[in-house]
C-alpha cells in the first residue's frame, strides 16, 4: 500500500481568511508531516504518488525552496550535463527538458476549467492546460533515462532520494529576497492568484503559511545533508557574486570538465539580461495561455532587491526572525548582511 505522510487540515478560520487572498486555491490547504509543510488541498489526492515516487540512479535533480534561483540552476545543470547543447536548449522548453515534479498539486480543478475556457479556441494551449494538471509522478515515470527533475519538495517528502545514487543540486537564497520574489510570483501566476499586499504576504511567509513552507525547515534539512557525496548545496548568492566559479563548482560535481572559454560562453548564455528574454526558460508557454502575467517569472535576478520594499519596521522584524532561526545551525548566507 502506498505510503503518505500524516497531514492535518489548516484550521477553518485561517482557511477562510486565506481563500479571500489566494484566489488560485478554492478548497483549502493541508499541513504535511511533523514539520507541517504547507500544500493545497489537492495534496490529499496526489501526495502518495509523490511520496512514493521512484527515482533512478541516473536522475539529476534540482531542489530548492521557491524563488531561490531554481530556473537558472536548472538550465545550468542541463547544459553542463548535456555537453553544452545550446542548440537543443534554444529549441526545446526547459519545462520539457527538466520537468517540475509537483506543479499539478497547485492546479485546482476549478482553475483548470477556467484555463480551458480562456483558451477554448486553441487546442494546443488547452492541451498544455491539461498537461500541467497531470501528476508529475506519472509524466516523469514515462520519460526515458537520463531524466532531469525539478522539485521544491524538501528531502523529508522524497524519502531515500539521496540513497538511490542520483545527483542533486540544492540551491538556497536569503529569505528576504526569496519572500519578495515569491510574493511577486504569487501575484502574477493564477494558480496562486494572491491579491494582497507584501506585508500581509510576509506575515504568511514568516508563519509558514505559503506553499512549501516552512522555509527554515526546508533549508535546514538540506544543509544537514550537505556533506553527502550525491548532494551539492549551492547558494544563489555564490552565483551572483562569481558565476564562473559557481559554474565550475557545479560542473565538477556533475563530473564534467570545460575550458575557460566554454565556461564564459555558459555564463554569457545565462546572463540575466539574456535569460530574462529567453522564451525557452521564462515560462512563455504559460504566459501565452494567460496563466502567468507578462514579464513576471524571470525578473531582475541579483541580490538585495528586498531593500526597495521592506520598511524599517519590517526589516527589523525580519532580522529578528532570521536571527532566531539561525541560532541552532551553522548555516549562513554568503555575502549577505541583514544589517545592510
In short:
Helix 6 runs antiparallel to helix 7 and helix 13 crosses helix 14 (260-269). The protein is of the alpha/beta class and 340 residues long.
Please characterize this protein's 3D structure.
This protein has 340 residues and is of the alpha/beta class. It has one domain (52-326): P-loop containing nucleotide triphosphate hydrolases (Rossmann fold, 3-Layer(aba) Sandwich). Helices cover 43% and strands 9% of the residues. The protein contains 17 helices and 7 strands. The chain has helices at 12-19, 43-51, 70-81, 86-89, 94-97, 109-118, 123-131, 136-141, 175-188, 198-206, 215-223, 236-241, 243-253, 260-269, 272-275, 284-288, 312-326, and strands spanning 7-9, 29-32, 37-40, 60-64, 148-151, 167-172, 231-235. The chain has a 4-stranded parallel sheet, with helices on both faces. Strands 1-2-3 form a 3-stranded antiparallel sheet, with no helix packed on it. The protein is globular and about 55 Å long. The chain starts with 6 loop residues before the first strand and ends in a 14-residue tail after the last helix. 39% of the residues are buried. The model is unreliable at 336-340 (pLDDT under 50). Keywords: Transferase. GO terms for molecular function: sulfotransferase activity. InterPro entries: P-loop_NTPase, Sulfotransferase_dom.
Feature tags:
340 residues; 17 helices; Rossmann fold; alpha/beta
